[in-house]
Design goal:
149 residues; elongated
Length: 149
């Protein structure tokens, strides 16, 4: 038995998906996006960073953040999202801590700012925590008189 009507022709081409890049929307037919300069990129990052920091600081989100981070901390000794803990001064003894992927002083792998560095027993300032993929590194420790900081 044959169908009574022919199926419609498919028109879901990938070219249609990317046609917007070849129009005069950006100024030329070649998809020139030079109007998006470095300052614009920094503005996007700064606004995104501020929004995510606000979300992390909201205490209503702390339970969700803990659920997201706990498996990462157990495996790698560092969360997925969140800022570093300036009070942490231990060793990374997590399952994969030996890989050297960071510790709780660092911001989360995906997002977070590193914590401020501490001071060692000789009064020398220690390095601040590393940032996540989106974030800022922590400032180094100030040190004390006679120490390096």
């Amino acid at each position: 038995m044959t169908p009574l009507v022919a199926p419609p022709a498919a028109h879901a081409d990938l070219d249609d998906l990317f046609d917007i890049l070849n129009t005069d929307l950006f100024g030329t037919a070649t998809g020139d996006i030079s109007f998006f300069n470095g300052d614009d990129a920094m503005d996007v990052f700064t606004n995104l960073h501020a929004d995510l920091e606000g979300w992390l600081a909201d205490t209503d989100n702390s339970a969700l953040i803990a659920q997201i981070n706990d498996p990462w901390i157990d495996l790698f000794g560092r969360g997925l999202i969140g800022n570093g803990d300036a009070d942490w001064d231990g060793t990374n003894d997590s399952m994969f801590g030996w890989l050297g992927l960071g510790n709780l002083n660092d911001g989360g792998f995906l997002f977070g700012d590193g914590a401020v560095g501490g001071v060692d027993t000789d009064g020398n300032g220690l390095a601040g925590g590393d940032a996540g993929y989106f974030g800022f590194g922590g400032a180094g420790g100030a040190g004390v008189d006679g120490g390096n900081g």
